Amino acid sequence: MAPIGIFDSGYGGLTILRQIRHLLPQYDYLYLGDNARAPYGTRSFEIVYEFTLQAVKRLFEMGCPLVILACNTASAKALRTIQQRDLPQIAPEKRVLGIIRPTAECIGKLSETRHIGVVATPGTIRSCTYNLEIAKLHPDIIVTGEPCPMWVPLVENDEYDSPGADYFVEKNISNLLRKDPEIDTIILGCTHYPLLLDKILKHTPQEVRIIPQGQYVADSLQDYLLRHPEMEKKLTKGATTQFLTTEEPSSFTESASIFLGDSTVKAKRITLG
Ligand code: DGL
Fold this sequence. Notes:
Helix content: 40-55%
Number of strands: 10
Oligomer: single chain
Strand order of the largest sheet: 4-3-1-2-9-10
Bound molecules: D-glutamic acid
Low-confidence stretches: none
């Protein structure tokens, strides 16, 4: 088996897996959620890098030639170091891709006012990765970030439909729009946030467009595989998905069925580090 590895700190990456599987159902997938150590969004650069590298190494050991960091925090804080420093030493023939670049690429076509908002974890916002990536591709766009430290815990604790979620979503969206009232497009820069989409839409003015990432990441992976036939040939095509978690598997199974809309998920527990 040579599956595509999909990694996230917890459940959020399942929103990306869902879109990727929908577009590319023929491949085998191996999902790893580091639920025992989530959230990553408030952790330091060093810790996110260390945890992400452990996960990537494990997915390589389990046969993945290609790993997608389906986590903005890991993409912001660990991807570049892993690609440039670690990969040439540990597995020069394997690849690790992130999800910020594909999202930054699509944004040029979507904003008319050229004012964009990004809601994400404090780690992603502090790294300024969205600002830097968007500036490289679309220098005319002004990017304003809003850290939302409570949104991932609300999702990881199944509170995404609660009045508490209303409170924090309203607070962060209105902060963002107060900082830049010209924003016409908001990127959901965290893979957990699609679960809060109903609340986000409820607290955002209708004329502001909300952009979840899954579709863009899936399109970009399809394009990558077309441009890299040597990688595409290595991937096995049995249309299976396996799930790994660092937490107790039964709670993963329950939440994963909500995130994926699939009640047949069976997860296996592993330890990292
Ligand atoms: N899902 C991750 C992201 O896209 C963050 C979750 C976390 O804070 O662990 O940034």
